[in-house]
Amino acid sequence: MTAAPTSGFSAFALEPFPEIQLGDDLAGTITDVLTRTDTRLQNGDVVVVASKVVSVAEKRHVDLADITPGPEALALSARTGKPAEIVQLILDSSTTHFLATEKGPIIARHTLGYQLTSAGIDRAGSGGAWLLPVDPDASARALRDALTASTGATVAVIIADSDGRADRRGATVISIGAAGIAPLRITEHGGKWQEETFTDLIAAAAGIILGQRGRGAPVAVLRGIIYEGTGGEGVAAMLHHRP
User: Fold this and answer.
1) Which of 11, 27, 219, 225 is 20–30 Å from 204 (CA)?
2) 19: Cβ–Cβ under 8 A, 6 or more apart, which residues?
3) Domain count of the chain?
4) Whole-model pTM over 0.85
5) How far is the C-alpha of 186 from the C-alpha of 163, rounded, in Å?
């Protein structure tokens, strides 16, 4: 089905947003911020949530002291300058990998099917690391169900992760989980059509205002985007390689 066009939309961060702690109720925290800031979700809103806070809420923390690097991790660490324990986590979390340049970064195909810099692993201070959610689409569904129940608004949820591109410097933002919104859309003009990774486009738009490196704004709301709902498939549905 060809998608209806979106001629304009608005976007805003939910802030101030408290720092999420291990095991916190993320949906409840989002609802509390909505109440405290007198913000109401509307039907059709897309709530974009940074994957880091999902990982924290889901207790996806790893203590690097518990990681023993193997020979391959030690060799990659020497080549890239990454801590050997982090490299071992990358290897453990992925099926294949390559270096974007002679010294990195490490681009890995995560066991979930995503191709991500460092397999989506984030440092947690000097002694820890954050892994991706176990099932980002399931995490998005749980958040969407909880937010719809607490606010009464029918919304979509996208879990977004910052990621680099192998062919260029810098990072962008992509979707790794979604619920309530079809991950792909088809646009057509003049008899030509294009299949687009729609949830990636939305995640990238939200990335302009999501918190980066210390700005505490891990949740954004995009309003006015026209989209198709979904029967349950999430970002995994558009991956070439699925577990």
Assistant:
1) 27
2) 216
3) 2
4) yes
5) 24
pLDDT at 1: 54
55 and 83 in a single domain? The answer is no
Is the same domain home to 161 and 224?
yes
Q: CA separation (Å) from 55 to 91, 121, 127, 215?
A: 19, 10, 17, 17
Q: What is the per-residue pLDDT across 190-242, written as a single tens digit (0 to 9) for each?
A: 888 899 999 999 999 999 999 765 567 999 999 999 998 887 789 999 999 98
Residue 146 and residue 17: Cα distance in Å, rounded? 18
Please list, residue by residue across 7-40, b when 16 or more beta carbons sit within 10 angstroms of its beta carbon and e when fewer do.
Answer: eeeebebbeebeebeeebebbebbbebbeeeeee
Confidence of residue 188 (pLDDT cuts 50, 70, 90): confident
- Give the end of a domain, one of 115, 130, 145: 130
Q: Assess if residue 178 is contained within a domain.
A: yes
Is 4 a member of any domain? no
Q: Domain check: are 140 and 85 in the same one? A: no
Does position 110 have pLDDT exceeding 90, yes or no?
yes
